[in-house]
Design brief:
13 helices; 14% strand; 310 residues; 7 strands; alpha/beta
Length: 310
């Protein structure tokens, strides 16, 4: 599990954003190897942590990492979207802080059996964060109709050649099931005009399929809003996103929750009754410094948004 101890992204900025308080209760919904969780507990000897992760390997690694803080944390193999059940199991109703890190861990990328990386040709088409779930990338690639493949590549991967890629996947699997990352990469490369090909031309398709396999955007809006409403007054939520789709959702939710009356301007009095729920700690997303980007490639596309409950 040592490889799970990757360096957490924007650790200093996250800790400053959470502003860990005496006897505060914090929720880390994406524990990974426990890097951020460890720092939260280490920052204040009275802080309590509740952490979740869908990946059993991550839960084991984080549990090992957090051993110095035994008695001050609970960690569950669970989807952070099931936060209500997890908080109930921990006997917690309100929180002082929430952290969600939507990135894939370096462990998941480097473990070729997980099938997350387009650089590992002989890896199986898996991409599951929760390996107890039987639904894999191989299922998507070999069973989805062409129109549905096209739609997820376009919507989740923002892939400009999604139509050609979807068509060629269907043609290829008609001859033989597509079972490895290398086979899928070959199909993608052959679907893209030569002048647009690059060593990373499969990245967007892999992202799209991974999002579909893990339901990463499903229920995200409701979850972020719900966790924000679980904050005590003055509590903070920090969210790290790594692609535009997630960031757009978080930005929209934070904007909506930070607005008061949304009645048309011509109305003489408010009739909507909407109240401001949060204030934005940073109006623009925080990005990693140049030094961190050089040391930790995962931080290059990361954006951190922070809001405070009022």
């Amino acid at each position: 599990m040592e490889s799970f101890y990757h360096k957490p992204v924007m650790l200093r900025e996250v800790l400053e954003g959470l502003d860990v308080k005496e006897n505060g209760v914090y929720f880390d919904g994406t524990a990974g190897g426990g890097g951020h969780s460890y720092a939260i507990l280490a920052s204040n000897p009275t802080a309590r942590l509740i952490a979740t992760d869908r990946d059993a390997d991550a839960v084991r690694a984080a549990s090992e990492r957090l051993k110095p803080f035994v008695g001050r944390y609970d960690i569950y193999k669970s989807d952070y979207k099931d936060y209500a059940e997890v908080l109930e199991r921990s006997g917690v109703d309100r929180l002082d802080g929430v952290l969600l890190d939507f990135g894939i861990s370096s462990h998941q990328i480097d473990d070729k059996d997980r099938g997350f990386s387009y650089l590992k040709a002989d890896a199986p088409l898996d991409m599951r964060m929760d390996r107890d779930n039987p639904f894999t990338a191989e299922t998507v690639v070999n069973e989805y109709p062409e129109e549905k493949l096209y739609r997820i590549l376009k919507d989740y991967g923002e892939e400009r050649f999604s139509s050609a890629i979807a068509k060629n996947i269907v043609n290829a699997r008609g001859r033989k099931s597509v079972t490895t990352c290398g086979e899928l990469v070959s199909i993608i490369e052959n679907s893209i005009p030569v002048k647009f090909r690059s060593p990373a031309c499969a990245r967007q398709t892999f992202q799209a399929i991974r999002i579909e396999v893990n339901g990463e955007l499903s229920g995200l809006r409701e979850c972020v809003a719900g966790l924000t409403r679980r904050l005590k007054r003055g509590g903070r939520i920090c969210i790290l996103t790594f692609h535009s789709l997630e960031d757009r959702i978080v930005k929209q939710i934070f904007r909506e929750m930070s607005e008061e009356c949304v009645c048309p301007k011509e109305f003489p009095v408010c009739v909507c009754g909407k109240k401001k729920e949060i204030e934005l700690v940073n109006k623009k997303p925080i990005t990693a410094c140049e030094e961190e980007k050089k040391e930790n490639s995962r931080s290059k596309c990361a954006k951190l948004r922070i809001a405070r409950k009022i």
